[in-house]
Amino acid sequence: MVHPGTSVVASSAARRINHPDSKDMADRPPPPRGRAALLEAFKSRLTKPGDDKPALQQEEAPKPRGRASLIARMKELKIGSATVPSSEPVTSTRIQQSVKVEDLTPRESESKPELPICSFKGTSGTSIHVTANYIRLSIEKSKGVFEYDVRFTPEIDAKQLRYKILNSQMEQMGGVRIFDGGSVLYLPIQLPDVKTVFKCKHPIQQSDVEMSINFKKAKRFGECVHLFNVLFKRVMHTLEYSRVGKNYFDGSNPSLVPQHRLEVLPGYAIAVDEYEGGLMLCLDAQHRVLRTDTALQLMNDIIRRTPERFKDEVSKQLIGSIVLTKYNNKTYIIDDILWEHTPSDTFKTHTGNDISYIDYYKNNYGIRIGDHKQPLLLHLQKVHKSKSADMEERHICLVPELCNLTGLTDAMRSDFRVMKDVAQFTRITPAQRLHALKKYVANVENCDKARKILLDWDWGMHIENATIDLNARVLTPEIIIFGNDVRHQTDSKTDWTGQLSRNSVLGSVDLDAWTIVYAEKDSRVANEFAENMTRMGKSVGMVIKKPRMHGLSNDKTNSYVNACSNVITDSLKIVVFIFPTIRQDLYSAVKKFVCVNSPIPSQCIISKTLNNQKRIRAVTLKILLQIVCKLGGSLWTLPIPCKSWMVIGIDVYHSATGGKQSVCAFVANLNDTYSRWISMVTLQEGEISTQLKINFVKALEKHREKHGSFPDKVVVFRDGVGEGQLSYCEKMEVPQFEETLRQFELDTKLCYVVVQKRINTRIFAQGQQGPVNPSPGTVVDDVITRRHLFDFYLIPQSVGQGTVTPTHYIVVANTAGIKPDHLQKLAYKLCHLYYNWSGTIRVPAPCQYAHKLAYLVGQHIGKVPSETLNTCLYYL
């Protein structure tokens, strides 16, 4: 079990009274306490005196890197300028710098010392043997990696020209290299000079070009993640896999879904990194759903359906969408539609000649464009300016006829038949997934060119032919506690829907004043729903009186909004809306009114949902349970011995079009049974939040109001942070919590955990008939965990179809000193407490609550909801 934290320390006021200098304090006005003290400290310390920059943003000056670092080291050695003196004799192809590699100190020429492994390993639970989709990479001990910086004078913009110039001198550099086309060069040998300069010719203009190869450092293989990913990128191209987005797919072998005009491309997500078990390749089978219809076909369909709103509807569906051009297997985001331009228009090539789009595709790809009057699509690509770090926009015009639409539309996602047919190809079993991994390894071994890239060249790398074996642990199944202290032991399916329907809820709330708003054509459905609700209240331990019925003559948005003004009173507890159809504009208008203008809990239902007589009891029970939560009640809990702890969930919503502000949702528990929550929202720019202090202050005050003291420990589960944002999260978000605790003069300790769902790691157990999904509660905290992070993987769910995806937990800060076993158990317990699903979910409940809240505000409301709703789960 998770042990509770230490006892609450004496208050700051008590410490001041015992201070030696407190003899005159009786004559002074009493200092502010509680929230006033925190807000005062927050205002006074948010910015440093004499500095307009927020204190949280003060950072040390960055250390020199790259070329600047090399120049600084050369100055320390009194070498002088890093440039070649003009008086030095120059050979026809090469200039040798006077500084030799052996002149550098070991600290300068050798790799950094290997850092210790950051282990976060627990011991509780039952041990089992599992495997994962990781393949170990073996490398010959005699091999090495040396990193160089490449510069061209004058600057060369085009990647292909950079490659040609570098390749012209490869014989003098050993014949083997990894070059990213920019400035990073890896060689398996170390050149004799710190700086090597080559005199070359421009491949096209035949002008003189100077290429300098500057030694940066020798690296151990564990540091060469970039190198290995470039290597495997070459391997994928050698195996004739095309890159679509971040992953690689086999475009020559699609699975067709002709009844829905779709095709599914098989492929792989591939990445190399250093883990606790060494250097490994993470390889996962992926699928990409493409639509066989083109952007031009979409335009033709729209003009047939709605010719009067043709341009508006086309812009709505295409702008912001992603298209794939099969002639080069690249994806583009459509930024605009050029209605005045057609494929007959001309553009200038890199040689300065004018050519039409029709002739360009005919000459370069052998493609004949059929419709010469179709408008062009515009993609804006940001590229670096020549000889500058600034960015500029490059306009890329696309022909709709050649652009395949990607992804599924909202209508397709809501169509059960479409999703079922697509799932036959995308939802593969653990056995099929492992078979795909073995097939890839076999393809590499059987392809001479691919094997040569990894092994026969001087890198000396080899892929082992088996996935990695692991020791995992399965945590003890949890006990669900309902009303009247009824307890239920969960099984391997972690589903307690049946028990929930037969037992009363943990904290019931009587419903004596509520209203149903509906269109007159749904009057029968509305009356039946009211009767079912009043009858079913007893089964969950509630007293539900008959509602007030408010019928509308039509289903217009204004009618529902006006009805809100008429029916909402101070005594009303909740208003239920029955909509004839799914309409985003109607839903958004109603939710904005009841969350901002006249705050009151609300429930929206589609009449079709209530028309299914076979499932009417289950549907009514589901709605009733949501209403209980929205009224401030609770459904169930678990035995969690973490008393006086505050658990926080944070998630951020970003608009798909990028036009709206991001929404940061902040959810914290109100009691020790983790069945009541306070929910807050702030609007911000980007993923990383700079306004967490405000919400944390409110949560601390609410905790003191409910418990009489502040929490002993604070555990934050932060969802939505990717690998590249971990350092920013640690520098920008964690200090906000730590600074608030210091300002409040508390000894409360912090544990900050990043939760990642979108990962490619897969874990497999061995069943009687082959690989299967592991049991819920499976924890992996060794071998495949990151070498320099405190992290672990947890599988909280039972998946009947396809392969389960574990959740990755990364401990960014842990001044609370919470042990691995305790944090792993706490995370697993919280996955049982999401009241919109009577089973376990992928992330801790506060994270999922924050996700739902951020989505509601960002997608529909657009404003911060009223604080009067903060203590109820009004967004379920």
Note the topology:
Elements: H1 12-17, H2 34-45, H3 66-76, E1 94-96, H4 106-109, E2 126-139, E3 145-153, H5 159-167, E4 178-179, E5 184-187, E6 195-201, E7 208-219, H6 225-238, E8 242-244, E9 247-249, E10 255-257, E11 262-275, E12 278-294, H7 295-305, H8 310-318, E13 322-325, E14 330-333, E15 336-338, E16 346-348, E17 354-356, H9 357-365, E18 376-384, E19 391-398, E20 403-406, H10 410-413, H11 416-426, H12 430-446, H13 448-456, E21 461-474, E22 479-481, E23 487-489, H14 497-502, E24 514-519, H15 523-536, E25 548-552, H16 557-567, E26 574-579, H17 584-597, E27 602-606, H18 607-611, H19 616-630, E28 645-653, E29 662-669, E30 677-684, H20 692-707, E31 713-719, H21 726-732, H22 734-743, E32 749-756, E33 763-767, E34 770-772, E35 778-780, E36 790-795, E37 807-814, H23 820-830, H24 845-861
Parallel strand pairs: 24-25, 24-26, 26-27, 28-31, 31-32
Antiparallel strand pairs: 1-6, 2-12, 2-21, 2-33, 3-5, 3-7, 4-5, 6-7, 8-9, 9-11, 10-11, 11-12, 12-20, 13-14, 13-20, 15-18, 16-17, 18-19, 21-35, 22-23, 28-29, 29-30, 32-37, 33-34, 35-36, 36-37
Helix pairs in contact: 2-20, 6-13, 7-8, 15-19, 16-17
